[in-house]
Structures are given as C-alpha cells and as structure tokens.
Write a structure and sequence with these properties.
Mean pLDDT: 87
Number of helices: 4
Oligomer: single chain
Strand content: over 45%
Length: 730
C-alpha cells in the first residue's frame, strides 16, 4: 500500500510540472466503508518553485486505524519585486482630475498597480495571483491604474476632496502575478474647488487681415485654458463682416496641440469689409459667451477710388469726403492720400478743411486722414483720386465701428466701403436725431437718408456721446445714390405730419427747413427737429425758427400733436438779389377742417397754404413770418390785423379768374368793403360792395366783362383805409 501511495504521489508531482492550474486535494487510499479526516497542510516548497502539500489522513476500516498521506500540487508564482517606486507627484490639479506620476522602481518590475481611497489611506492590499483592472474595487480601495508607465491621469473625481494613493510593484501576470505589498509608495492630494467658471481664450493668432477675394482659407487659431478643469470643446461661427447673419454656426474646432484649437474658414466667407467670427469654449464650469473677432481686408495697390467729381472753384464745388481704410503710417497724410491733386500748398488748385469743436480749420499736408471723419474738399481740376493701399476697419455686427460726437455739429465720414442707411444708424443709437445733413452742391445742404461710401456729412447732438455704425449692408441703399430724406407726408388732421419749406434766391437754395407735429415729439429739441448748419461760407440763405438751443436756431420744428399751434421764424440772406421765394408741397394736406396759413408779419399779409404752394417776398421788406395751424377760430385770431390788409391776388398773371385775399381788423359787426377794378387809364371795369366779418377773407374776381390782356388796378376800400395792387390779365 505505501508503495502505491508513493507511486501515485510521484506521478502527481511530475504532472504538477505540466499543468498550470491548481489540482484540488484528493484522497487516494480508501477502504470499503472507511472515512478519513485530514490535518492542516504541513509542508511548502520554496517560493518560485512547484510545491507539494502533504496532509496526514486517518482511515477507519473494519475497526482498525491506518495512516496514509494525501498530496496537492499547485502552479508556481513570479519572483517578488525587490523595490517599490518612489517620488509620488501630483500635477495639473483641477476640481475633477489630477495627473499622477512617480519614479520607476529599481529592479525593473513588470508593472505597477495604483489604488485610491477618499478621506483616508486604503487598508486593503492586492492579492497574489489575482489580476485587477482599472475601476475594480477590493476592500476599501479602488484600482485607478495598472500598467508599465509611471504617469497617468485620474479623472472623474469629486471637487474639494482629499484622495489617498498607494502604488505597488508587481511581477508576472495572470495566475503568476506577484505583488510586493510591503511599504507601498503612498501620497495624497486634494482636488480643487468645483469648476464654476468657463474657460478663457488667452491668445488668438489668427491673421488680422487678408486680401480681398482670397481663394485660400483663413486659418483661425486660439489658445483656450481652463484653470479649474479641462476644456471640453471649442466651436466657431462665422460669416461676412458686413452681414447680420452667420453662414456657419457652432462648428467644432480641432484641438491641434495642448491648449491650441484651430479651424480653417473658407475664403468665400470674406467680403468687402472682411470676416466676422465668434468663438465659444466649453468646460465643466460652463461655456464662454460668444467672443467676437474680425479679420479685415487688405486693399492693395491704388486702394479705393475717392468719388470726387465736382471740380471747380465755387462754393457749389465743395464736397465732404471720407476714406474708410486704416492707412500705413507712412502713407496716411493729406499730401500722400490726395497726391494726384499735386503737392498741398498751392491753394489755387485744391484745399481741404475740417469742422471740429465749432471751428473750421484748413488742413495741412501732414494732417492724418482717419476713418470715420469727414473732410471738406475742393479741387479746381478733375482727376482720379485713389486712397492708396490700406486695410478696412476691424468691425462686425457685434463690435461695430464707433464715432465720438461732441455736443454740437460734428463732421463725420462713412467708415465702411458701402452705403449706409441713416435709419439703420439711428435705430442702433436710440435718441440720435433723425436729421443727417449733406452738402450736395446743388447748391446747398439737404436732409439725407443715407451716408454714401467714401462720403461724409454732419450730425448735431446736444450732449457728447459715442455712436455705433452698424455693419449690416442694407441692399435698399446700395446701388443708388439718391439720398434726400422723406418727410411724414400725411394729411393735416393726422397725428404725425410735416411740411418742408424750400427757400430759393437765384441759384441759392435752402432745403432743410420746415415744421410739423408728431405724437412722440417734445416741445424742446428731440430727434424730429433740425438745426441750421454752421455758416461755413460767406454766402448763405437760412430760415431760423425763433426757438433756439444755446446759440443755434431750429431750422425745422416738430412739436407734440395738438389741435392748434403757431410757429414763428425769420429769414436771413447774404446773397445778391432782393426777391426770395418760400415753397411747399400742399398736395397731401387732405380734405379736412384744419387750416394752415403763412403770415408775413412785416406786411400783415396772410397766405392760405392749402390754396397756394409758394410765396415771394422782398428780403428788405419782409423778414418775420408765422405759420398758423388749427381750427378756423384759432387761425383767424392769430392772423388778425389792425387795419384792412390786401394780402395777395392769385394767380397773377392770370388768363381767367383771380382770387383776392384780404384781412379785416376785429370788429363787433360786419364791415363793408368796396372792390374796384380799373384799367391803367382809370376806367372803371368792375366794382362790388359787400359786407365781411373780421379776419381773413377771400373774393373771387371773375373775368366776365371781356377784359382784354393788360395791366389793371385792384382797389379795396374799407372806411378810410384804401389798399391796391396790380393784376395782369393774359
């Protein structure tokens, strides 16, 4: 029997070198009905070698006791590492992650396992012959790294939490893995506070300008940093700088290296003002707001053409020009930009001025030309003027160009190379006056509705302010040059209406005057009113409302809507000639009970503005005027006279009938008026006697007596007052 046991034991010993798995305990000797009880194993071989476990077994058989041996064979494990790694370091600490690194152990172990526990050091140890994966747990520990490297990133951590780490060397793999559990490398590190702030864009190395019409891409490159966590994503949206919409939205950028994110924008997105793009970065702390940037356009060679074509030496040849480019420092002065006109200094050929701070100053050859400013220019000879090479201003729909205005008139220029709508500018700057003035040389100022490319004009504000110039290219004002502003041409009984007044004296005209009502207007100056321009020239023709702001007279006065109102104004002129006409359009006054009269205060002459559309006066005889609006009783009261006044005979000359307008002083009863028409020899052609009430009256003189063409005298007599005027029949 002992020989059999020894044989079987040797057999299993040899088989133990062939099979890698553990062979379970077995009892090899037994007797019928016998049972046995084993003892604790009593023998182990050396570490690293196959070993045999021998257990003594007592057998009971037939009442007799017999002793035998039971054997177990098991696979060998790898050699135990000789050392642990050293120098545990934590870096790139955020609210949710670390970079963990350490120095490799001597003896070159096969690898390392790192375990972690929050709040205290882990007490559990890895078990020999057991393989672990990242995220496995045993005891109170979590496996966070298994591998041959000495650096890893531990993420997904809780903020403001202390974490403890232990690092063990190991040899072998699978069932042979053998961990060195004595004196592991240990250390601890707390995470940062929770990430509550978005990332920061710390640098942008995108080109600031590109050539227009580029067929290549625009390389966008930004550096994005988050000091509390990691940057998760960066997106870009882009479109033409002169558009309010973006042609591409939230495109993912590429994390090309480290903190650098890149994207290639197609060149087709670049138009005459350049490219507009927005960057947005994301992290655990949230996302940044869209951060706007611009790429300007380079105009090379001769640059842009300055559209000055009114050459001459008279006042009507002046224009206000602008240059919408940032020019190089060595080419941005008057003598460099306008060099086609010749050296600056020969004032018989060309001159330039600028109005600023209530003073008009002549420029010099070294004056710097800047975007957003307007400049008076007059040149004797016609020639093509080019700005020279330059770059468009950095502007977009989020960060448009800004112009600083002083309290008074300001000479501004279009900062962009396309036409701008003044309505758009006003909408972007609430409270900005509706009036924008241009000098069109034909032959005076106009209230303009648009600011054309390469041109300038004037705007008045009562307090210093900064205005923004929207970058959106409005198709309605591009492709056309007509820019005279339109008024509220509504009937006189509507809440909002205006009447424009044009003064004409020979070739000189004034088109910026008027009056009206608006339900949103105020009694003082507001966006609906207008002021007279500074007197840039010695010759001028102006209409001054008696209402003023400081030293400046209103040219147009729009008041709050009311049933009755009277405007007062006077006319100034330094032009040659005595006769001045004031004209208006009455075609839209409408069929209603509202009356509108022009009163020549000096001559006590009233003109029904519904019936007539012009009035001519002698500037030496008439200066002061009123416009009276409202109900019949109010108008009659305001135009009442002290004695009978013969206002006008209209039309005159006439080929048919004529209307005689006159006013009578206040009286408790009706007043008799005799009308007499005589020829130049005193012959009585027609007469009439009738009674009239006080105030304004009209009588129709009918051509029914066969009057021949010629000059006649119309005479009115009321009491002791006699008035007469000439009437021409054609």
């Amino acid at each position: 029997m002992k020989q059999l046991v020894l044989f079987i034991g040797l057999l299993y010993l040899s088989l133990g070198n062939l099979f890698p798995q553990q062979i379970p305990l077995q009892t090899f000797i037994s007797a019928g009905g016998a049972t046995g009880n084993g003892t604790t194993p009593s023998y182990f071989a050396s570490v690293g070698q196959p070993f045999v476990i021998e257990r003594t077994v007592s057998l009971n058989a037939g009442g007799g006791v017999m002793t035998a041996n039971e054997f177990m064979f098991t696979q060998a494990v790898a050699t135990l590492p000789t050392a642990q790694p050293t120098a545990l370091v934590f870096s790139n600490v955020t609210s949710s992650s670390f970079t963990v690194s350490f120095t490799a152990a001597t003896g070159s172990p096969a690898g390392y396992i790192v375990i972690r526990k929050s709040g205290a050091a882990p007490s559990s140890l890895p078990v020999i012959s057991t393989t672990y994966n990242v995220a496995d747990t045993f005891g109170d520990a979590t496996v966070v790294y298994v591998g041959t490297g000495t650096t890893f990133n531990d993420s997904g951590l809780n903020s403001s939490t202390m974490y403890y780490y232990e690092v063990f060397s190991f040899n072998g793999s699978g069932a042979t893995i053998n961990y060195l559990t004595a004196n592991p490398l240990s250390g601890n590190q707390a995470t940062g506070a929770a990430d509550t702030t978005p990332p920061n864009i710390t640098a942008n190395t995108t080109p600031s300008s590109v050539d227009l019409g580029t067929s290549t891409t625009v390389p966008v490159s930004v550096t994005v940093v988050d000091n509390e966590s990691t940057v998760q994503n960066v997106t870009i949206s882009y479109g033409p700088a002169n558009s309010s919409s973006l042609i591409a939205q939230d495109k993912n950028m590429t994390n090309s290296s480290g903190n650098v994110w890149t994207f290639s924008v197609p060149g087709s997105a670049v138009t005459e003002l350049g490219l507009f793009y927005q960057i947005q970065a994301f992290s655990a702390g949230g996302n940044t707001a869209y951060i706007p940037y611009s790429v300007s356009v380079n105009y090379t060679g001769s640059g842009l053409k300055i559209p000055y074509a009114s050459n001459g030496v008279n006042v009507i040849n002046y224009r206000v020009v602008s240059v919408p480019l940032v020019l190089p420092a060595n080419a941005n002065t008057v003598d460099k930009v306008f060099d086609e006109l010749g050296p600056y200094g020969d004032k018989t050929k060309w001159r330039m001025y600028r109005y600023d701070n209530e003073v008009t100053t002549e420029l010099t050859g070294s004056t710097t030309i800047e975007p957003g400013k307007g400049y008076w220019l007059i040149a004797k000879d016609g020639t093509t003027i080019n700005s020279g090479a330059g770059t468009t201003v950095p502007a977009n729909s989020v960060s448009p160009f800004q112009i600083n205005l002083k309290a008074d008139w300001n000479e501004i220029g279009n900062p962009y190379n396309f036409n701008l709508s003044w309505d758009d500018i006003q909408a972007a700057n609430p409270g900005l006056p509706t009036v924008f003035r241009k000098f069109d040389g034909n032959p005076d100022y106009v209230n303009a509705s648009q600011l054309n490319s390469m041109e300038g004009g004037f705007v008045k504000v009562t307090t210093a302010q900064t205005i923004v110039i929207p970058t959106t290219k409005n198709a309605a004002v591009n492709g056309r040059n007509s820019s005279e502003a339109k008024q509220n041409r509504n009937s006189l009984d509507s809440p909002n209406w205006q009447v424009g007044l044009t003064l004409q004296q020979g070739d000189l005209a004034n088109k910026i005057s008027g009056f009206g009502m608006n339900e949103n207007a105020s009694v003082g100056f507001d966006i609906y009113d207008g002021f007279n321009m500074p007197k840039f020239f010695d010759t001028y023709l102006v209409l001054n409302h008696t209402k003023k702001d400081g030293e400046d007279y209103y040219s147009s006065d729009v008041v709050p809507t009311s049933n009755n109102y009277a405007w007062e104004f006077f006319v100034e002129s330094t032009a040659e000639g005595r006769l001045i006409s004031v004209q208006w359009d009455n075609s839209y006054f409408g069929q209603n009970a509202k009356e509108l009269y022009l009163l020549d205060v000096s001559l006590q002459r009233s003109i029904n503005m519904r019936s007539y559309n012009s009035y001519q006066f002698d500037k030496n005889a008439s200066r002061s005027f009123k416009v009276v609006y409202g109900d019949q009783d109010f108008v009659k009261e305001k135009i009442a006279v002290q004695e009978m006044v013969l206002h006008a005979i209209w039309p005159n000359p006439t080929s048919g009938d004529a209307t005689i307008s006159f006013s009578l002083p206040e009286s408790a009863s009706s007043q008799s008026v005799e009308f007499l028409l005589t020829d130049m020899l005193g012959k009585n052609i027609w007469s009439n006697l009738n009674s009239f009430s006080s105030g304004y009256n009209e009588v129709m003189l009918k051509r029914t007596n066969g009057e021949t063409a010629g000059v006649y005298i119309v005479r009115l007599t009321s009491g002791s007052t006699v008035k007469q005027a000439r009437l021409v029949f054609k």
